[in-house]
Amino acid sequence: MTGTLILVRHGQSEWNLKNLFTGWRNPDLTEQGIAEARATGKALKAAGLVPDLFYTSALRRAQHTLDLILEELGIENVVITRNVALNERDYGDLSGLNKDDARARWGEEQVHVWRRSYDVPPPGGESLKDTAARTLPYYEAEILPHLKAGSSVLIAAHGNSLRALVMAIEGLTPEQILARELATGEPVTYRIGPDGKLVERLVL
Length: 204
Known about the structure:
alpha/beta; Rossmann fold; six-stranded mixed sheet; 8 helices; 15% strand; globular
């Protein structure tokens, strides 16, 4: 018996469109983001992937994405678990800034380090390592036991909180995970064995 884990990065947000650092700020989805979320719901339904359990972050864009996926799957009146452990990486002082303005202020090289290093946080914010330090214990304590028992779990969250999970599940190095892009609204699906280990990665 294997469990199924479906990871979905939220659809395009209003701040993705404006090229702003978002982090824990709370913009909603754009029209494109809504369409991406609905497309994911349709794809899951076409593949016969109907989750049993649903998790998302404390942020609107991820919650809205999950709501739209559930609508497309025809699922109503279910318990949705929302937790800050699944929130996006906190970008600290960069939050709300245009990425080009940040480069002009701190220099392209420094901003690149903050965005793409594993363990160097921006001022007042989190690195990917910091994000993993809150996301992985939550996953291991609250979600993994359900997967080991054979349940199907959908997590609608964010690029960096999901990167932390992908890194652990696939056994990637910090360098490998930093090179992995997770597209908005695109599901990443795994079969997880009763030992909690990856059995296979599914392509929809």
